[in-house]
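Quick one:
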Amino acid sequence: MDKKRILGQFFTRDELWLKPQVVDFINKSATSIAYDPFAGAGDLLKAVKEKCGFLKTVGLDIDNSLDWQYNDSLLDIPHLEDAIIITNPPYISNYSAARKGILSDLSKYFKTSNYTDIYMIALDKMILAQKNIVAIIPETFINSNYAQKNLLESITILEENPFEDTETPVIVACFDGIAKDFSEIKVYKNKNFINSLGKIESLRLKPHFKSFIAFNDPGGWLAVRCVDTTSPKNMIKFDLKENIKYDWEHRVKVSSRLLTLINVDIPRDERLLFIKKCNKILEDMRQETSDVILSPFKGNMKDGRRRRRLDFRTCRAIIERAYEEMYEKNKDCHIQPNLYPTKETEEKNNVNQ
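Output:
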């Protein structure tokens, strides 16, 4: 188990990942060989051989204890004619590798790449080797800066956990090797089509950084729960700090990311309306994007939906939008709060998003 965690190896347990649209993509590739350059226990190859009727399966792995041909597929993957890659590559970020004290062991991979996670390096090698690829990778890929997303055919978010030994939220990414606009890339959640990746991206809120908003301010009045709990009744929300039971005085720090206090100059008698607007913008964004726009958080809520996390950049964008709706669109009927800082206050709060 320690070896698997250090190497970022997590083996699938069943066929949860083989959703109908994934099977359809595999069948449309019209290939006769299922090829896994990170074969591990071989579960993926066994599953697709039975489900999709492959005549041949080929596996490679760096682990000599496994019954495959040896190959370091993070350095190079041999091309194979008439094959589709179906794999679950290793996941480990350079941050995690440093924390585990194994960054030097992985430096030969990271030093030739601008990516911060091994699985992205693996994707690059796969794309060089084969046209058609099915890869089970972290869901954080959707919000990543990966350069070759335009080669995707579809993304399938798996809310059920296909692993025995990790709760890492994952997707099934299907690459067909054809460059395209994001509006042509389909996004599914489990078996259900959600929208195109382009449409989802168009709904992403981006901050303008015009307003003075101080994050992780112990003296702030606006409380934000930035992560869904396991209860659907206690999800990400904006509220007055007195309405959320938490030791705000001692636990709000610069590093806080789950619960935080924000200082925004809104008149006291208008704060409840401001909170209502923030929550409405958040709710609309979640509904319109089927939650895909928010980063995943380990584990699901009790109703089976994936827990989500609100990053500070999106949080700032929501606050700015609420402010614009309350004041900038009604300049003639209200004196605007002073959300624009002096040089001194800007420097003082420079550490806050």
